[in-house]
Write a structure and sequence with these properties.
With about 240 residues, this protein is of the alpha/beta class. It is about 40% helix and about 15% strand. It contains 7 helices and 6 strands. Helix 1 crosses helix 2, helix 2 packs parallel to helix 3 and helix 3 packs parallel to helix 4. It starts with 9 loop residues before the first strand and ends in a 16-residue tail after the last helix. It binds 3-methylbut-3-enyl trihydrogen diphosphate (2 copies) and magnesium ion.
Length: about 240
């Protein structure tokens, strides 16, 4: 299936609603997470097919560590299994794998698998797939500010040299264009500490479906809705985007 017209270059997704999907079926929440992995597979494939260049998936927030230990442990095991099972597919399909967030807070074994997957796919030039893990946008911004302060303090940078571009380069998303489209599933109208700097002018699309029920058709619908939007970036009429 090909999607034509003004494609979003970068799609970010807040994959929400796994727990409610399971609870509605009187199943433990972990079944929802398991089912959610299948959706990740389907949507990543669709992104490749639609020729999306960058996709960033919010998989685990810093705040999610406060969930019951049993659920957190399960999510970490599931993540490890995902990193193993997907490697081949990512490698052979030109997907470049990337992670943003406090990687050092993840279990050691998971960190190793992440590094392996990143290394094994670093030359791929198809979809650039980023997972946000142990991620907090406020931590990201605070860390960036600290790094720049240190550079000034130690004489590597002058205060006047701190520009928006420079700040952006100190974020985890250095080199990745800002998302054009942000999708959140399961109907919540909030951004939950995700890419706060980067979504300044991003179009937001909220689907009422729970993440495990979100299908390729729903993804396509979000893209088609995006294509109808008029992006203004503060100006008075539609802006011609370089990649549009
Ligand atoms: C999203 O689903 C997955 C993670 C945050 C890990 P939730 O687990 O938040 O599901 P709900 O929001 O409770 O339904
Ligand atoms: C956001 O979902 C985090 C992820 C999807 C990983 P949450 O379920 O944690 O967010 P809140 O608690 O509804 O804001
Ligand atoms: Mg949730």
């Amino acid at each position: 299936m090909e999607v034509t017209g003004n494609l979003p270059q970068h799609v970010a997704i807040i994959m929400d609603g796994n727990g409610r999907w399971a609870e509605e079926r009187h199943l433990p929440r972990i079944h929802g997470h398991q089912k959610g992995v299948e959706t990740i597979r389907e949507i990543v494939r669709a992104a490749r097919e639609f020729k999306i260049k960058y996709m960033t998936l919010y998989a685990f927030s810093k705040e999610n560590w406060a969930r019951p230990k049993k659920e957190v442990d399960f999510l970490m095991r599931l993540l490890g299994a995902y990193l193993d099972s997907e490697l081949k597919e990512l490698e052979t399909n030109q997907v470049r794998f990337n992670v943003i967030g406090r990687m050092d807070e993840l279990p050691k074994g998971v960190q190793e698998k992440i590094r392996r997957n990143m290394q094994r796919t670093e030359h791929n030039r198809g979809l650039f797939l980023t997972l946000a893990l142990s991620y907090s946008s406020r931590v990201e911004i605070t860390d960036a500010a600290k790094r720049l302060c240190r550079d000034v303090h130690e004489g590597r940078l002058r205060l006047e040299e701190i520009t928006e571009d420079r700040f952006q380069d100190a974020l985890y998303t250095r080199g990745i264009p800002d998302p054009d489209l942000l999708i959140r599933t399961s109907g919540e109208l909030r951004v939950s500490n995700f890419l706060l700097w980067q979504i300044s002018y991003t179009e937001i699309y909220v689907s009422d479906k729970y993440w495990p029920d979100f299908k390729k058709e729903d993804f396509l619908e979000a893209i088609q809705e995006y294509q109808k939007r008029e992006r203004r970036f503060g100006m008075t009429e539609r802006v011609k985007l370089p990649h549009g």
